[in-house]
Design a protein that fits this description.
alpha/beta, globular, oxidoreductase, binds ligand NA7, eight-stranded mixed sheet, five-stranded parallel sheet
Length: 542
């Protein structure tokens, strides 16, 4: 790369996933100078890194796509209902080409530190290549599930076979033919990759700490007529997405799961199960997310399905989760439960026999050692905060973000945090983000941030920062809403429960993307209510 990083820009954007790409486009349209730093060698973020076999999105392609360009919507041809990682990455690359984005993106470059200068009211951003860029605004477009984690057991580097993490999969195909493979973790990445790896490998042993609720995806190629329909109706569809709960339009439920007969309830769950849509399951009744007894009916339905599919009763029982449906991220799969009927697949329930260590040969649990040729870690992420707190971010007065968030993240609207002027987060903690169709949430945040910057420039304002009371009220509001739901009943990464020592607070806003958007729009319409806006300080140079 022969380009030099500019010394000073209006905006530094960290990350060239769906957020950073669209933000760069918006900033250019506003004639602002911007530079994007990206650790990977190309655009795509999540879809650049997570190349494991079977990786797919679980929101339908026609909905999991940008809405900002009607030309893009019309010209792009999605192939599958739930596209594979390569197909989504191709889409991201197409967008980068079409809007000439790579020109302002520095790849293979990781932002290591960002410090706010109180006097100059600018950010100084540093990279692992020794670059130092000054910017008026810093936007962390770093993703919610991007800082991966490994199991916290000894011996990880003792193993002499091949090791993989689903979120750092090699770019070349991995061939498991003839191999004995151990797979640790049964979240979405495990659930998607296990059937594909099992079809290739000589043997697969799955180490499960917590089972997932998974629905068959019923994936298929899209029909030309449904693509044409969507293309003809995109504007109305986008509007419905933005006003919905999960960023996916659905007919609202009208009945409690407890007011209908067993037959009617099972019929409704059956429709959701057959539909291959998680949102259809979660919204089949009005009270699944808030009432334990109602949720238990969904749980029993899925347990029954698992027992019908999985032949060995003990394996089936081990695959049945106990926490309420939807309180950990549910999964969409292709042949997940069926895979446990294969002779070459074996499930180890870590609740009975916990992981002890990784050895030279493989994995040791409390009762025995398993020998493998390869180990796959599908062990997830330090979600929502990991990518933010692992950059050395220092705000006003040199105060560190990591320290400030020691007892859990505190934001106003999930977009910014008191003490960190002119720093924005795309889909940060306190926003719906991971509880929604990500692309919908990303576009909303990017638009809000770009509009805010435009407003500040138009009004001669140099700094924007949440007022402490407004932030406290937002944090209370986010907690209040999750308190009405069953979400806090599960040990999920929504709660920080998967990372030892991480504070246990429910991080996303659970009130739905439609309600959330209304609140963000109101804040902007009222002159950025809850933010303190300051004109250029007399101390700063002209
Ligand atoms: P997830 O959903 O966080 O899944 C990680 C899995 O790994 C999960 O089953 C964990 O069990 C398990 N895990 C994590 N640490 C350990 C240790 N130390 N020992 C044993 N098992 C462990 O990550 P994914 O990559 O699958 O999916 C992330 C998101 O991507 C997904 O939700 C969708 O939004 C798309 P646990 O449940 O913590 O007991």
């Amino acid at each position: 790369d022969s380009r030099t990083v500019p010394a000073s820009v209006d905006v530094v954007v960290v990350g060239a996933g769906f957020s950073g790409m669209y933000l760069l486009h918006r900033l250019r349209e506003m004639n602002l100078s911007a530079v994007v730093f990206e650790a990977g060698t190309d655009v795509g973020g999540t879809w650049y890194w997570n190349r494991y076999p079977g990786a797919r999105v679980d929101v339908e392609s026609l909905a999991y796509s940008y809405s900002f360009s009607e030309e893009l919507e019309q010209e792009y041809e999605w192939q599958e209902r739930y596209p594979t990682q390569p197909e989504i990455l191709r889409y991201a690359q197409h967008v980068a080409d079409r809007f000439d984005l790579r020109r302002d993106i520095f790849f293979r470059t990781r932002v290591t530190a960002a410090a706010y200068d109180d006097r100059d009211e600018t950010w100084l951003v540093r990279t692992d290549h020794g670059d130092a860029v000054t910017a008026r605004f810093l936007v962390m477009a770093t993703g919610c599930l991007s800082h991966s984690k490994l199991p916290e057991i000894p011996g990880l580097d003792r193993f002499t076979g091949a090791t993989y993490h689903t979120a750092h999969w090699p770019h070349d195909d991995v061939d498991f033919t003839g191999m004995r493979v151990g797979i640790i973790g049964t979240g979405s990445s495990g659930v998607q990759s296990i059937p594909v790896i099992a079809a290739q490998a000589a043997g697969v042993t799955v180490f499960q700490r917590t089972p997932a609720y998974s629905l068959p995806a019923r994936n298929r190629r899209l029909r030309p007529d449904e693509i044409a329909d969507m293309k003809a109706n995109y504007r109305a569809f986008r509007k419905a997405q933005r006003e919905s709960g999960f960023g996916v339009p659905t007919a609202p439920a009208t009945k409690s799961a407890l007011e209908v007969s067993d037959e009617e309830r099972d019929a409704a769950f059956e429709v959701a199960w057959e539909s291959g849509s998680l949102v259809n399951l979660l919204t089949a009744f009005t009270d699944l997310a808030v009432d334990q007894e109602a949720n238990d009916t969904a749980k029993r339905f899925i347990h029954r399905k698992i027992h019908q599919i999985v032949e060995d009763p003990r394996t089936a029982a081990d695959l049945c989760p106990e926490y309420p449906v939807g309180t950990k991220r549910p999964c969409l799969d292709t042949d997940y439960y069926e895979t446990y009927n294969r002779e070459n697949v074996h499930l180890v329930n870590l609740r009975r026999t916990p992981l002890v260590e990784v050895t030279e040969k493989g994995v040791r649990t409390s009762d025995k050692e398993y020998a493998f040729d390869a180990i796959v870690y599908a062990t997830g992420f330090d979600a929502m905060t990991g990518a933010l707190t692992n950059v050395d971010i220092c705000g006003r007065g040199g105060v560190s973000l990591k320290e400030t968030w020691r007892a859990g993240p505190r934001t106003y609207l999930g977009i910014s945090s008191a003490g960190f002027p002119n720093m924005f987060m795309i889909t940060g903690p306190g926003s719906p983000s991971v509880l929604s169709n990500m692309v919908v949430s990303i576009e909303q945040h990017v638009d809000w941030v770009a509009d805010a910057i435009e407003y500040l420039d138009r009004h001669g304002i140099t700094t924007i920062e949440p007022v402490q009371q407004a932030q406290d009220a937002w944090v209370d509001h986010v907690n209040l809403i999750s308190g009405f739901t069953l979400y806090p009943k599960a040990n999920s990464w929504y709660m920080g429960a998967n990372v030892p020592g991480k504070p246990q607070v429910f991080m996303p806003y659970a009130g739905g993307v439609g309600e959330y958007r209304k609140k963000c729009d109101e804040v902007a319409a009222h002159g950025y209510e809850g933010f303190s806006l300051s004109p250029k300080s007399p101390a700063s140079p002209a």
